[in-house]
Amino acid sequence: MTGSIAFDIGARFGRLVIIRRARLNGQVAWLCCCDCGKHRILHTGAINTGHTRSCGCLQRETAAASKRTHGHSRQFGSPTPEYQSWCHALQRCHNPKNGAYKNYGARGIIVCRTWRKSFTAFLRDVGPRPGPGYTIDRIDNNGGYFPSNVRWATKLEQVHNSRVVKPRRAFGRIQCLSSWVLEFGVKRSTVEGRLRRGMTLEAALTDPLR
C-alpha cells in the first residue's frame, strides 16, 4: 500500500483494524486491533507503506512456518538421502568454498530458483529415491538442476551420462550412445557407421538393415 490512504475508523490494513486516532512519541498515530486480539499503536507511515500488517503475529507465524520440519532433514538422527542430495547440489553449485564447486558452480551450473528456496519443491518435482544405489543425476551434464534435467539414476547410468561420454539427443530425450543402442537393439558399429555417413541419430537407430 502506497500513496495517500484514508485512515477511517474501522478501516482494515492486513490483519489490523483502526480503532481510533492516537499519538505516539508526539506524532499522529492510530490505535489498531489485530485479528489475533492484540492492540497496537502505529504511526501513519508504518500503516501507509504496508510494512506493518499485523501486531507482529504474522511475522512470527511466517518464521515458524519456514522452520517447520518436512520430515526429511532428520530421520532416525540423520537426514534422508533426498535431503542430502538437495543439500549437496546447493553446495556444489552455490558455495565457492565447496571442493566440487570448480566442476559445478564455476562452470555455470546452478540449482533452479524454486529448488534453492524450497526442499519441498525439489522433492515434489523429483519424487522419492527409487531405492538404494540411486542418486541425483543431470541428464544434460552441461545443464543445471532443473525439473526437466534431473532424474534419479544408478551409478552405471551416471557413468554413461558423464561428460567423458558425449550425451546424444533423440526422440526428445538425451542419453549416451551406449544406452541408445541397448534400448533399440542395434549394433553400435552399425549406428556409428550411419552417423559418419550423415544420418541423424533417430534414423541410424530405426532404419531397417539392408
Task: Label this structure with key terms.
210 residues, alpha+beta, four-stranded antiparallel sheet, 8 strands
Word description of this protein:
This protein is α+β, with helices and mostly antiparallel strands and 210 residues long. It has a domain at 12-67. It is 34% helix and 19% strand. It is built from 9 helices and 8 strands. The chain has helices at residues 44-48, 57-67, 81-94, 113-117, 119-126, 155-160, 177-184, 188-196, 201-206, and strands at residues 12-13, 16-24, 27-34, 39-43, 135-138, 150-153, 167-170, 173-176. The protein has a 4-stranded antiparallel β-sheet. A hairpin with a 4-residue loop joins strand 3 (27-34) and strand 4. The protein is elongated and about 95 Å long. The N and C termini lie far apart (73 Å).
List the helices and strands and how they pair.
Blueprint: E1 12-13, E2 16-24, E3 27-34, E4 39-43, H1 44-48, H2 57-67, H3 81-94, H4 113-117, H5 119-126, E5 135-138, E6 150-153, H6 155-160, E7 167-170, E8 173-176, H7 177-184, H8 188-196, H9 201-206
Bin the helical content.
Answer: 25-40%
Strand content: 15-25%
Order of helices and strands: EEEEHHHHHEEHEEHHH
Mean pLDDT: 82
pLDDT under 50 segments (min length 5)? none
Shape: elongated
Task: Please give the radius of gyration in angstroms.
Answer: 28 Å
Cross-sheet strand order for the largest sheet? 1-2-3-4
Question: Terminal Cα separation, in Å?
Answer: 73 Å
Give the number of DSSP strands: 8
Query: Which class do the helix and strand fractions yield?
Result: alpha+beta
Q: Please count the helical segments.
A: 9
The main sheet comes to:
4 strands, antiparallel
